[in-house]
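Page 47, continued from p. 46.
Same chain as before, 408 aa.
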Amino acid sequence: MAIDTYTEVWNQVLLRCPSAGPSMAKNFIRNAFRRLYDRRRWSWKTKYGQFISPDAYSTGTVIVVQNLTTVTGIGTAWTAAMVGRQFRLGNNAPIYTIARYNSPSSIELDAPFGGISTTSTYEIYQCFFTVPSDFHQFITVWDPAFNWQLQCNVMQSEINIWDAQRASTGNVFVVSFRDYTRCMVGIVAQPLQVFGTGNDPTSGGIYTGPMDAIFTVEITTGGAPGTAVYQWKKDSGSYFTGIVTNNSATPQFLQDGVQVTFPTGVNYTLGDIFVIRCTAVSNPGLPRYELWPHAKSNHVYPFLYEMVPPDLNERNVTIPRYVRGDILMEMGLHEAAKWPGPSTDKPSPYFNLQIAKAHELRAEQMLNELELRDDEVWEQDLQYQYPALTWAFATPLGDAAWLQRHAI
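Result:
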């Protein structure tokens, strides 16, 4: 446990600078913790993670349509666990990511399919991996099965020179930053009838499109579910026609995660038109890395990484046990002594630049002591006298006399 809690530390600042108030005192300590956190790669910032590569899946065939994200499977048994994995038709096609699972025979891609509409064999595997939500940077990534460390300093442009088709598969030895994930959690409104007076269908799902959109559904053959037929389009696009309503009251997927359901027990009227308004909402993305060459069998790649600093205001966040509360207090008081007050007519009695300098010097001394203590846990600044030597110890034979007798 930490010597002091966050609440205790900001209250200590507030006792010395009451005019700051609780909000400002908390802000002083939060900022102090961020500065301390970013000062170096502290040992307690190291965390463990792993990328798990699943076996490739290629059962059945697929129907893909140019400019659509929906992929329809024939003889497939897709699962929700495949969301986030990659989908491709062959080495001559781009690699897409599965953005949404609709059913064992329907998935949606993260971008419209760019190739020619076709029925084809396919492959689902994983080569792009998303890091943990608190990820900052890799320290090391390794493969225990093949006994080597993966390279983390290779760019996508370099891999594109070597293997633009991404045809290489097998043993991974490169981890390359690719992009940030796109996490869309848009809202699908209920259908609004704009023409006709018949019964309404219902809608659902999570809209995954990048922009707001309106889906139009029109009944082209009236009747009960299983008999009624409809057509639909997105915005001003072309209609997809001749779609029979499902007679089991289960959702039918349109595009970008949008579902429409025709409840049983009622009839639907020819010519009725409904619109479904969808609002795009995105979550902040996370870094995504490519493991190359692509592995298509079950494998695990452990890694150590440096995490990003949490905000002390977040729930269940505590000051790391190696960080003394008095250091944060000194850093907070340094900020408090530089704060002139809320206004010119209400100056802060604690405002004094000389006192601020004294707090800064004291905090720096304490930080230096903290760094020395952290080096005892994890030495990071070890240097050898002769860096050109490839041995893992100071001298080839562990004897300085050897260096004195040999020219290196």
